[in-house]
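Allow me, if you will, to draw on your knowledge of protein folds for a short while. I have a record of one protein: its chain in single-letter code and its fold written as discrete structure tokens. The full record is reproduced below for your convenience:
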Amino acid sequence: MKQVLLFGFVTVGLASCGALGPRGPAPIAPPDVEIVAPVEPTVVLPPPPGANTAEALDTTTEAQRAAAVAAPVTLTRELGKTTVALGSPIEPWFWLRSPLVAAPAKGKVVTVGGASVAVDLQPGSGGSLLSLPAYRALGLSLTDLPEVTVFAE
């Protein structure tokens, strides 16, 4: 009698958790549904260990640099002009850290010569710092201290 009761409890327990078998076929997409791969998100990678050149420290891709330079000018307000220095070369992506910026935003910096690049604007204190990828996209020498005009969206 104990064996029958034990078998009954085990059967009920297994049936309630689905361990006795699948509850039906797994759902599949209908054949007329097109499965589209997601757009690759912006990947921001840190430089590899031991990187010691501008090329090795700049982890942006050629496509990301082209997109940053080609970003349309849909900016509504000029924040001002500032002289920029090269920021930390191990901080990836296109950014400007400046006292002209009160809160994080999207923006653009434009050199006196007209070159421009889209950047993430970040508040800063002291002098303005521009990321290594932004310097390279603008065609600046890493020792330049150029004056740029800062725009925010």
